[in-house]
Amino acid sequence: MMKSQSLTSKRTNLAIHAILIAISVVMIVPFLWMILTSFKTMTEATQIPVKIFPSEFRWSSYPEAFKQSAFQYYYLNTALSAFMKTLFPIIFSSMAAYAFARIKFPGRSLCFFLIISVMMVPNPVFYTPQYLMMSKLGLVNTVTALWIASLISPFATFLLRQFFLGISKELEEAAILDGCNPFQIFWHIMLPLVKSALVAVVIIQLLWSWNELQWPLIINSSPEKLTLSAGLATLVSKFATNYPVLMAGAFMAVIPMIFLFFIFQKRFIEGVAFSAHKG
After folding, report:
1. What global pTM score does this model have?
2. Lower CB count within 10 Å: N or C terminus of the chain?
3. Separation of alpha carbons 130 and 119, rounded Å
4. How is the chain split into domains, by residue range?
5. Alpha-carbon gap, residue 136 to 100, rounded angstroms
6. Separation CA 230–CA 69 (nearest Å)
């Protein structure tokens, strides 16, 4: 009986690993294809039957990507925008989440409902009012417009509130007896206890900000004011697209995220897994 159960367990694990490997292959093939295409000539990239490996690895597409677009500005704008869209939501959303979770005030539930209801509305719905606001402030076609409208994140507020609700109230009561005010309790006691949730929020905000496409294309038109995603879109032509150059640009665009993942791999996995478990 025990041998039968052990055999069944091994088969189940084998099947699970086989499925995971298959999914991993499906996910990594487009990435490898992007890298290989960046080393091909235009003829090799578009020929039929498809040629997987280039006859010769050519690096010319990478400097060509800088020549055909303002790639150095794309990097700087994307890094600045991603930093601001991560820093401010962490600060403001964590404060709002703590207030909604621990501080009782009139209309608390209504205010929280209004914030959460924003998550139910697609982002493109906000583009028109946001553009009008940026226009009145004179921020159209500026780098500031890329991040100024994203100072708070409803999702981050919701996620962090759930974590704050799970912390024992005895800790706050002990801090109050020691003479701590609400901000001191939040900063010195509560915030360190939700470190895993903060990591998850940083991951989500950073990836979303780095890959954002629509808003930069709407608010900015100058090449020097675009982000990486929007700048890569300008390399796509209506009549002819240089695919090796486009793939070289796409690969250079994801390099920072790849390095960040390998450097903070443990934190990335812990943050995402812990937030999924909490949800």
Report:
1. 0.83
2. N
3. 16
4. 69-234
5. 32
6. 11
